[in-house]
Write a structure and sequence with these properties.
CATH topology of the largest domain: Aminopeptidase
Distance between the termini: 26 Å
Strand content: 25-35%
Oligomer: single chain
Structural class: alpha+beta
Radius of gyration: 23 Å
Order of helices and strands: EEHHEEEEHEEHHEHHEEEHEEHH
Largest sheet: 14 strands, mixed
CATH architecture of the largest domain: 3-Layer(aba) Sandwich
Number of domains: 2
């Protein structure tokens, strides 16, 4: 199914919505649903990491980027074990799920939307942003469009396997360029910094290098001073920074954050002055090896061009935006929202087609 799905068939699952709002309900198969209104309990932190393994669905990231005062927590337990957690906010008739870069099943989405429409009378439309999903039919009409894509590299279990996967030429070049760097620049050093070991100056230097490369591509950098401060705070809580220095100056580096058994890379960059020495790739390789030592399963490079292109090919994953409406009537009443979502979905498809066409030969591209 293409991400341009706009309206899906639906089957109503309940009578007209009642006015009782419950914070706890029990369903068949031992399913228990709880809802903490205007509260994000701390005990969900480990379960969020276990269930989703996503930085963008973690309590540590939420504590820095969001305000918990108007955030609600929806929890599903099966046999006493937590199996689903959604953080969501209500804005008038809109409900927005905060969890992003996660996989949401049709069952989870059906259960959640039904719960919201039954217990939150004002809710008319529910938004999921940047999620993976395989939905085909929901109890309510919905839209599903492609929102963005990102790249994931699944890691082998050992550094030796990773090195073997790079190919004979890359293996030879790794040793050669490390030797060349050390001989040409005796002060070359590579180090890994974890959480509290990470200092503000190193983060700022890596971001400055990254900003310079982005600006060189005539693309505006989204990392302003406020965002830099948030990155520093997040890095000291769950960060892993790989940094290469020559004469004490940062010449290459990566900033990543661990959630569960996965690492999410915020920046991978190097000084183009050292392009001839593969310093960007070497920094990535050494950082990836450290992730393997720490038993990481996946490296998430998110959106944009990254150094992962030098490693075994990552897998592109689509992230969808889904809007679920209380009824066909409400979808019609909120036609401006429905049209905007559909337009953005088709526009993103067009931009992706044009981007891919640039890489082809022939008259049409």
């Amino acid at each position: 199914m293409k991400r341009a799905d706009v309206i899906a068939r639906y089957v109503p699952i309940c009578d007209p919505i009642g006015c009782h709002k419950s914070n706890r309900s029990i369903e068949p198969d031992g399913i228990t649903i709880s809802c903490y209104e205007n509260d994000v309990p701390e005990f969900i932190e480990a379960d969020l990491d276990r269930i989703y393994g996503s930085l963008y669905s973690s309590l540590v990231q939420f504590s820095i980027y969001c305000d918990s005062r108007d955030t609600n927590t929806y929890i599903v337990r099966k046999g006493g074990k937590i199996i689903t957690i959604f953080l969501f906010q209500c804005y008038g008739y809109k409900v927005r799920v905060i969890n992003e870069v996660i996989s949401v099943s049709e069952e989870d989405m059906s259960r959640f939307t039904a719960y919201i429409f039954i217990n939150f009378i004002a809710a008319k439309v529910i938004f999921f942003t940047s999620i993976q999903t395989n939905i085909r039919t929901l109890p309510f009409p919905y839209q599903r469009v492609k929102n963005m894509e990102y790249t994931v590299l699944t890691l082998p279990k050992t550094g030796e396997e990773y090195l073997d996967s790079l190919g004979k030429s890359a293996r030879r070049n790794i040793q050669r360029y490390i030797r060349n760097l050390s001989e040409t620049f005796p002060s070359f050093r590579f180090e890994l910094l974890v959480k509290d070991e990470i200092d503000d100056q190193t983060i700022r230097a890596i971001i400055a290098l990254n900003r310079a490369r982005v600006d060189g591509k005539s693309t505006a950098s989204a990392t302003d001073q406020a965002e830099t401060e948030k990155i520093i705070c997040l890095a000291k809580k769950c960060g892993l920074v790989g940094v290469a220095r020559i004469n004490g100056q940062v010449c290459a580096g990566s900033i990543s954050f661990r959630t569960g058994s996965n690492y999410f890379f915020r920046a991978i960059t190097h000084d183009p002055m050292y392009d001839a020495y593969w310093i960007g790739f070497l920094c990535c390789y050494l950082t990836f090896c450290e992730c393997i030592v720490r038993e990481a399963k996946e490296l998430h490079f998110m959106w944009g061009d990254c150094e992962y292109k030098y490693s075994p090919p990552g897998v592109k994953r689509d992230l969808d935006k889904v809007a679920v409406y209380r009824s066909n009537w409400q979808m019609l009443c909120k036609g401006d929202i429905a049209l905007k979502i559909a337009f953005r979905g088709y526009l993103r498809q067009l931009m992706a087609w044009l981007h891919n066409a640039k890489r082809r030969d022939g008259f049409v591209p």
